[in-house]
Design goal:
It is a single chain. By secondary structure, the protein is mainly alpha-helical. It has helices at about 1-15, 25-45, 65-70; strands spanning about 75-80, 80. Strand 1 (about 75-80) and strand 2 (about 80) form a beta hairpin.
Length: about 80
């Protein structure tokens, strides 16, 4: 069944492309087709967009409770990096 659909699609395209067949593209339609094709080619030729850097991580602190403040050497204050005092 897919082959039948493909054959009908090819027949319709040939009907529009072959100049002698009634209903084929006029000169104005070919110009419009060329303009849209050039626009698409120009858009596809652009370089890919530059990725922006992710937002910096938020400052975290695991030194909030009094029990954690007893041993300040294990206290982390900047991006999870150990900070000794």
């Amino acid at each position: 069944m897919a082959w039948l659909g493909a054959a009908v699609s090819v027949a319709i395209v040939l009907m529009k492309v072959v100049p002698g067949v009634p209903g084929s593209f006029t000169r104005a339609e070919w110009i419009a087709f060329a303009a849209w094709s050039a626009l698409r080619a120009g858009l596809l030729a652009r370089p890919p967009p530059v990725e922006t850097a992710p937002a910096p991580a938020r400052r975290t602190s695991s030194c909030g409770s009094a029990a954690e403040n007893l041993d300040r050497r294990r206290c982390t204050t900047v991006f999870g990096t150990p900070v000794t005092r």
